[in-house]
Write a structure and sequence with these properties.
It is built from 12 helices and 17 strands. The protein is α/β, with parallel strands linked by helices and about 425 residues long. The two termini are about 20 Å apart.
């Protein structure tokens, strides 16, 4: 007996690992290295193609709660992430190359997992299957999924540029985290005064954008969490100052005052030789990125090791198609996992792969599949993607709003979040034996 897993990204690798942990063989299909998408640069599995941040680390946050739930269930990805984290203030960020390498070794060295390097264009019908091909599914399989699901929805995802640390002018930048949280080495901040910011804004909204590839869907929906910075800038002069360039909680030690605007840089690797521009996902042409982002004083000599890119992201109408256990209503032996299901975010995708893998084993063995309690973050995401009352389905990341209300009202936001987390972890402990 074996289970097929299509795609070796975050959801696929987590699904394969969970299946193997339960003593079942896995055939893990991955089209790399024979075929790469425009967003992929590495031949390793589980490549992080956008940010290297896995969002907030603290337990009294939705993202932090999700990751702690995954740890307690026994997540491979969380184990690897915790071992290769880099400074990022209150967030859990990783050295993306070390992270992918660690996951790749764990998967390839597992005796129950066979990695098959080939592009899949049809659903295998020989065994229970988990489809985790992600937002960059190849054209042929995307068409097959679309036919099976009666059409799919698409939007565009964008990645931020990465520059060398040595090219940052530290005479014009300073290290600090907002409100001094996370240590002074978490971020490099590149301040701008009012005149510099307004010149930068004008150049950004008028810069030339890269054409989309033919494989991209017409009239895309762009998810807010990955909105290109040039699109945000078009919404108004001060939009960026209240978004990715907000100076709140920062004070320039050279002036003693809060900057008018600031570009934050987050370390991209453990050695801190590379930094990404936080919130600067973009679809500008490469020369334009160098020109416009070089208008930030501290980045005037920035050396780009990776320019920002925009790529396709696809998800299905899950509330109409999927059960809470991530299986198809019409095909119980076919599971979906990852961003394709409408969970948004790295760890959200991995958590869906975790549950889909666990339930694929249960389906194979004729056992009852599981949906975690609704007051856990993973369980709330399971119910969100399968909620048939949702008419205009859009991707959703972990957030406290999808959890059921607390029995008692707590006005303090931090205390309320802590209460949500405490309740969730207690509920999870009560059902761990079922997993």
């Amino acid at each position: 007996m074996y289970i097929n897993v299509l795609g070796a990204g975050l959801a696929g690798c987590e699904a394969a690992y969970q299946i193997a942990r339960r003593g079942v063989e896995v055939r893990l299909y991955e089209m790399k290295p024979h075929k790469l998408t425009p967003a992929h640069k590495s031949t390793d599995l589980c490549e992080l193609v956008c940010s290297n941040s896995l969002k907030a680390a603290r337990l009294d946050s939705a993202a932090g709660l999700l990751k702690e739930e995954m740890r307690r269930i026994g997540s491979l990805l969380m184990s690897c992430a915790d071992k290769c984290r880099v400074p990022a203030g209150g967030a859990l960020a990783v050295d993306r190359d070390i992270f992918s390498s660690m996951v790749t070794r764990a998967i390839r060295n597992d005796p129950l997992i066979t990695v098959i390097e080939k592009e899949v264009t049809e659903f295998p019908c020989d065994a229970v299957t988990v489809v985790a091909t992600g937002p960059l599914t190849s054209d042929a399989l995307a068409e097959r999924i679309s036919a099976l699901c009666g059409g799919s929805l698409s939007f565009f995802d964008a990645a931020a540029p990465v520059i060398t640390a040595e090219s940052i002018d530290m005479d014009l930048a300073f290290t600090a985290s907002r409100y001094d949280k996370g240590g002074d080495d978490a971020y490099i901040n590149c301040p701008m005064n009012k005149e510099q910011y307004e010149s930068f804004h004008e150049a950004l909204v008028n810069a030339e954008r890269a054409p989309r590839h033919d494989v991209d869907v017409r009239d895309p929906k762009v998810y807010e969490g990955c909105m290109p910075v040039e699109i945000l800038a078009q919404r108004g002069l001060d939009t960026l100052r209240f978004g990715p360039m907000k100076p709140v909680g920062l004070r320039d030690p050279r002036t003693g005052h809060r900057p008018w605007a600031v570009v934050q840089l987050r370390s991209e690797n453990a050695d801190k030789t590379m930094y990404n521009l936080v919130g600067f996902q973009t679809n500008l042409k490469f020369p334009e990125q160098k020109r416009v982002f070089g208008m930030v004083p501290a980045l005037k000599n920035a050396e780009f090791v990776r320019y920002g890119v925009m790529h396709r992201n696809t998800f299905i109408d899950s509330p109409r198609l999927l059960c809470p256990d991530y299986s198809m209503k019409s095909e119980p032996g076919l599971f979906f996992a990852g961003q394709m299901t409408g969970v948004e975010g790295y760890m959200e995708s991995a958590s869906s792969g975790m549950i889909a893998g666990i339930n694929a084993v249960k389906r194979l063995k004729g056992e009852q599949t599981v949906t975690l309690p609704q007051d856990t973050m993973i369980g709330a995401l399971q119910r969100y993607i399968s909620d048939g009352t949702i008419k205009d389905f859009q991707p959703m990341g972990a957030n406290m709003g999808i959890l059921p209300p607390l029995e008692e009202q707590i006005r303090d936001k931090k205390q309320r979040a802590a209460a949500y987390s405490e309740r969730a972890l207690a509920s999870l402990e009560a059902v761990l034996s079922l997993l």
